[in-house]
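seq/struct pair 1
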Amino acid sequence: EQPYTSGEDDLPDNKKTSTAKKRNIGYWSALLKLWPARLGPAPTPSEEVEQVIPLDTERGVSIRLWQFRRERKAVAYVRFEGRPGRRLYGRLHEIAKEIDDQIAGDLIWDWPMRNSFAVVDEGVDFRDHHDWEIQHAWFIEELTDIMEALTPELAQPCEADEESGADFTEERHRLRYRFWTELLEHAATKTELHANRKPGKFNWIGGSI
């Protein structure tokens, strides 16, 4: 029996992009048909391999469902961004065993990045539409467990930031300047293309060409 193939590798790049977007929308649309009403309104299906589900915008908390297609992994992870999000993640990490017990899959903490945790299902084939039902059932089970486990913590008032806005902005600018300085120093050892670039305090750098 020949392995399943979509023939996508034989398409030109622009057709690949269009096909990938349609495939992703189809995949997430089928999953979101199973969305439990008790979890609130379902998000809009994504055209990317990642489906984002905001949980608490004030704290910067969201659930990300991800198709690692090449690695054949289905991943559901919770991302905590910003200072309030990192504080919440720290509190959850202190009760990691309690959180683990409420979620069907085995949690991986600080993965796929810092201040996040994930559950992973390996050996899945996203190209096989006949397997989607099993994949979607897994996503929904893990998603439901995660949201129910986080509900008590998210119900707590968001702690006020102890650092003033001005202090926070100054620290952010300092870190950006340091980042760009070290990046340009490293680039200078590899190429002269960035020789006229200067480090700055914003989230971009520029210069004359």
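seq/struct pair 2
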Amino acid sequence: KMQEICKERFDIIIDFIGYNLSDSKKLINALAINKRNPNIIFISTTYVYKNLKSKVAFRESDFNPQLYKPHTNTEVNYESGKRECEYFYSSNYDKNKLLILRLPIILGPKDYTGRTCFFIDYFKSGNTIPELKNSGKANYVFSDDIVSFLDGCIQNFKSGILNFARPNNMDQKDIAKLYYKFMGIKSNQHKNLDKDQLSPFFYEKNFKV
């Protein structure tokens, strides 16, 4: 099926669904068989920096995919899978036609992970917001930001590796405040129910790019 799709002459391919080395390999091999070489934007994650030496903030150069050694087993976790994809693309495709875009947690509608609906679902259940446990700060990005950025990439493609996130860093309490405002909840409407309550946005320590 991939080979059939790659018979088309695409100017650019945006890979949102590559999660391991095998996924990337299928696409690159299909393009090679059909002698196609479109620009590729691979949607990766800032989680490729996870478990690296602790820093105040991570730069693109802190993870070089070409130096990564992929796992021999097919079952890998999310960040390892994305590292594998970056490795395969970087080692097997024209670097001038490849953009690796590393994204943090995405806020916005239609999030299949359910993370960004955590507080909305909490409110809809008739609950009030608890006092959330202090957490580290991290970067986020909104889905509309990504759409606008990708549109610019399509119009004016530039290769390389890029962290893309909003410059402000937030902890899970900051995220909660966004939902307070979004849902019209006033500060005096929420109670301190559980000081150890965790949301999907909890980071034990700062994780920034």
